[in-house]
Design brief:
This protein is an alpha/beta fold. About 50% of the residues lie in helices and about 10% in strands. A six-stranded parallel sheet has the order 3-2-1-4-5-6, sandwiched between helices. Strands 7-8-9 form a three-stranded mixed sheet, with no helix packed on it. Helix 6 runs antiparallel to helix 9 and helix 10 runs antiparallel to helix 11. The longest helix has about 30 residues.
Length: about 300
């Protein structure tokens, strides 16, 4: 396979994704803000700037933290667009705002390049195992061209008609994850306060009507109060819920549960738990229920 891919962002998600592209036979040009990570990626070429990573690449993938990070590596003399040639495609795989996604799509179109928003569902272990679910949005021909890239990274795709639709779909999904954690935190606190073993209660719930991966995996962390190490930190979750609330205001959709989860996240971070896993905001629910002692 001769396709060259630029990959920007070698964090907990990006590093295993880039390694999977190398293993699939792509030529990978890697860049990370901390350059040592790119140099340590076996089989990839380490690059000094985003522009260098984009030079000669058919696709450039970004897996970065937020709007500012993605937009920051895209423009300017050392940015992605300075290295891309017309017809090349930037695939943004970060969870970013709908507004930023629109801006990126317009910017790339003005330069004669393609842009696909392709956020993912899955934690670092899923990224390593090529088990991500990918939600790509953009022009149908661009999505077709990108299919081999997605196949090297995940177990399936859910294509959307436009990049901004993919961004919104990811935010809707992350809202449901947060809402599920809120529900689990309340249900398990209710049971534990009444004398039930939370792990046995969770086993009953997942063995009957609630056997989804989100309930099983986040529920286990909540039942055991095991919130470190994180797969997805509370700081990143709070960023996503701000984006969810922003999208809700734009669409004039009342989302009181999103407001509640956002408040829980803010309180957990205020208490110094910013390094906890997403499930860790359930610690606030436990404490409000009088279950202050954490079992380790």
């Amino acid at each position: 396979m001769s396709t060259t891919i630029g990959f920007l962002g070698l964090g907990g998600m990006g590093l295993p994704m880039a390694a999977n592209l190398v293993a699939a036979g792509f030529r990978v040009h890697a860049w990370n803000r901390s350059p040592g990570k790119a140099a340590a990626l076996t089989g990839a070429t380490a690059c000094r700037t985003p522009r260098e990573a984009a030079l000669g690449a058919e696709f450039v993938l970004t897996m970065l933290a937020d709007d500012a990070a993605v937009e920051g590596v895209t423009g300017g003399p050392d940015g992605i667009l300075a290295g891309l040639t017309p017809g090349s495609v930037h695939i943004g795989m970060s969870t970013i705002s709908v507004a930023a996604t629109r801006r990126l799509a317009r910017l790339h179109a003005d330069q004669g390049c393609g842009f696909i928003a392709a956020p993912v569902f899955g934690r670092p272990e899923a990224a390593k195992a090529r088990q991500l679910w990918i939600v790509p949005g953009g022009h149908a021909e661009l999505l077709r061209r990108a299919e081999p890239v997605f196949a090297a990274l995940g177990q399936g795709t859910f294509p959307q008609a436009a990049a901004e639709h993919a961004a919104l779909a990811k935010l809707a999904g992350n809202f449901l994850i947060g809402a599920t954690i809120e529900g689990l935190g309340e249900a398990l606190s209710l049971g534990e306060k009444g004398g039930l073993d939370p792990e046995r209660l969770l086993a009953m719930l997942t063995g009957t009507l609630f056997g989804s991966p989100v309930v099983r995996n986040y529920g286990a962390r909540i039942a055991r109060t095991e919130f470190v190490p994180p797969g997805f930190t509370l700081m990143l979750a709070r960023k996503d819920f701000r984006l969810i609330q922003e999208a809700a205001r734009e669409q004039d959709v009342p989302m009181p549960l999103a407001e509640l989860v956002s408040d829980r996240l803010t309180e957990a971070i205020r208490l110094g738990r910013e390094g906890y896993d997403f499930a860790g905001f359930a610690s606030v629910i436990r404490e409000e229920s009088g279950l202050a002692e954490m079992r380790r």
